[in-house]
């Protein structure tokens, strides 16, 4: 070990969304902060996750727009895709954001040390088995890596994960996606739009488990119309590589031949070798760091945030947890993250966004509920842009007099709903009633009118919604 005189108020292990958010928030409060990052600040989200995936999905959206241009009187030759150009553009976007983030951290005098950091106890972080820095507080934010499944070892060519998908310079002719969650469905949507033959294999009974059924059904119907093969409630049992691609076996003897298999079965915490020496930080059986609601671990002065803990693996949840940790370190009044009501966004076509309880979850929790749904087919702006697939669904608590009270959940599928969720998220988290939200005016013609119309209908006096 190489001793060092470097001591900071806070040392953060990991420079992904949770880690860099903690660093920026702490530095803005006057704390001296060091971030230890094994690769580049920005983490998986910026370099191999959220940002590159959404850039590819935007390329698919542009391709769809060109394909349908003739419906608007814009005549074009049939479009084609050069995915290497898409890849280059993605990298430019990522690099610009990375440089901006690096500059922001430098401007706030955050010290960034490149290397693999391990917490060894007593406020000490060892870097690459050598240099040691110390902190009055330590924040563990090492993130996560893709999960794999037995029999499908990642080779980077035929059997791949999201990491390899986001590095491709050309598209395969066919893929099978193991996993029908948010990431798997986003890849399926993007690739199908760009002409790839897609098969989804999901062990659960439905795609997008955890979403409200009416919202998930919108995506399933759209996928079916676009020729995406979906097999739910099935297990994959193995594969047999050939000269090109592989034969994938699933269910009761079914098979499909594809060029590539994308394993998209979630992510696991990257906690290997994170702790050592005299650390007394506890992990659970799955490798997650155990924390309380203030992100404090079992060792005093040590916190854990982001994908390293067993909470929603969302960048914005990592941001929120970072703020909780820093405010706790500062001794300020802190409101823990309300995980039931965090916003969720899925960037399939059509998009999905929601916050709060689904109708099923609300009923299972003992609520008597009133539900209203408004399809985007009746929205004038949706008609104008030619994107009418989708629905807005609002779940409200039913009062004793039969009227709609507190809004428990807002669930959307349709055009740009990821940009419309803000109103619904605030309504749920402010525990607003339907009547209170119905009072606010929605501009016309906009997509957001659909949410407004749905809430007005909950008051029993709907305009266009019964």
UniProtKB/TrEMBL annotation:
Binds 1 FAD per subunit. Residues 8-322 form the FAD/NAD(P)-binding domain. It is found in: Cytoplasm. Keywords: Cytoplasm, Disulfide bond, FAD, Flavoprotein, NAD, Nucleotide-binding, Oxidoreductase, Redox-active center. NAD(+) binds at residues 179-186, 202, 266. Disulfide bonds join 45-50. GO terms for molecular function: dihydrolipoyl dehydrogenase (NADH) activity; flavin adenine dinucleotide binding. It catalyses: N(6)-[(R)-dihydrolipoyl]-L-lysyl-[protein] + NAD(+) = N(6)-[(R)-lipoyl]-L-lysyl-[protein] + NADH + H(+). One of its GO terms (cellular component) is cytoplasm. It comes from the Bacteria. Residues 342-453 form the Pyridine nucleotide-disulphide oxidoreductase dimerisation domain. GO terms for biological process: 2-oxoglutarate metabolic process. Its main location: cytoplasm. FAD binds at residues 54, 117, 307. Its EC number is 1.8.1.4. Its cofactor is FAD. The active site is at 444 (proton acceptor). The active site is a redox-active disulfide bond. Belongs to the class-I pyridine nucleotide-disulfide oxidoreductase family. This is Dihydrolipoyl dehydrogenase.
